[in-house]
Amino acid sequence: MQLPEERQFKCVLIGVCVAVVLFALAFVVLTVVKSLRSPRDITSNWFSAWGTWAGGLGTAAAFLIAAFSISVASAHSRFDRRQAAEIREDNDMAQARLLIIYKVEDEHSISSLATYRIENRSKDLFFDVSVPYVDSPYGSDEGVERRTADLVARDNRLHEFIPTAEQLTPYRDQTDHESWFTLVTVHTSDVSGIKFAVEYTDAGGRRWHQGLGGEIKRVHTTEAVPIRPPDRFQPRQQIGRLSNVEAWRMGGPFTKNLEPLQTDAEFLEVIAVANVARWQRIVRFTPGSGHRVSGMVVPAG
Fold first, then answer.
1. Which segment of 26-30, 173-177, 239-243 scores lowest on mean pLDDT?
2. Is the dihedral angle over the CA atoms 251, 254, 255, 256 positive or is it negative?
3. Which has fewest Cβ within 10 Å: 118, 132, 211, 265?
4. DSSP labels for 85-130?
5. Residue 235 DSSP label
6. Per mean pLDDT, which range of 13-22, 104-113, 127-136, 224-233 is the poorest?
7. What is the pTM of this model?
8. Are 197 and 214 in contact (CB under 8 A)?
9. What b-and-e string marks burial along 3-17, b requiring 16 or more CB atoms within 10 Å of the CB?
10. Closest C-alpha to 43, from 52, 33, 35, 53
11. How far apart are CA 209 and CA 131, in angstroms?
């Protein structure tokens, strides 16, 4: 594909060539005519004057060619950057295109209860999958009601569901807390009039907005992905501060600057562990049999 700047540069080159040819033709014709009419006027001044005009013409031609060459180079640079940006945007949208939204249709569907399925067909996670609102025709007066997840939960609307801040696992994979698809279910008087969009974050941290028709737009945000209730579980820390009783059990430098034990319960908690460690099992021998039978455990000594 030829750029507009390239077409302009081609026109300039043609114009310069035509101007040079016309100038040379005019010089030859006028010189021949003048030599026939007044040969004595063909002097060095004549050629010097034409040389001056030729120098000016050459300078102007060189300037035009250089200027339009720079314009063509800049146009190519802009075109390359634009193409690179389009390729980068296409690559960034690769996973986002694999979030599929479609209406569920089967023989058991209820016409007044529209159900849409949102599926993750990619091999990676989608985070914070949310439907901000659903515009659904409601009632016989052709009115439209805007429904949100908070409204559905507050009014306890039967069978309705609008996802918010969900996490979708890779295709055909699921855990105890999330799956690779979710649903949008709302009551309506006209299924064809339902409108909603899905906002979600891909595995690369890019936020997207996809309409019901499949059009995807980039959403620029500076906010982190929200924490969901299943994500709030934290494993027990492996390193913790010693209690006073545990420090007294360790002894040595661990008891430095500790208050003395105050109660019998604390003494027992500290001393009992060391005593139990020295306990031995009682062995009872049966007379005449040579067998021994284990008994209860008591402190040694």
1. 239-243
2. positive
3. 265
4. HHHHHHHHTTTGGGEEEEE---TT--TTEEEEEEEE-SSS-EEEEE
5. P
6. 224-233
7. 0.59
8. no
9. eebeeebeebeeebe
10. 35
11. 10
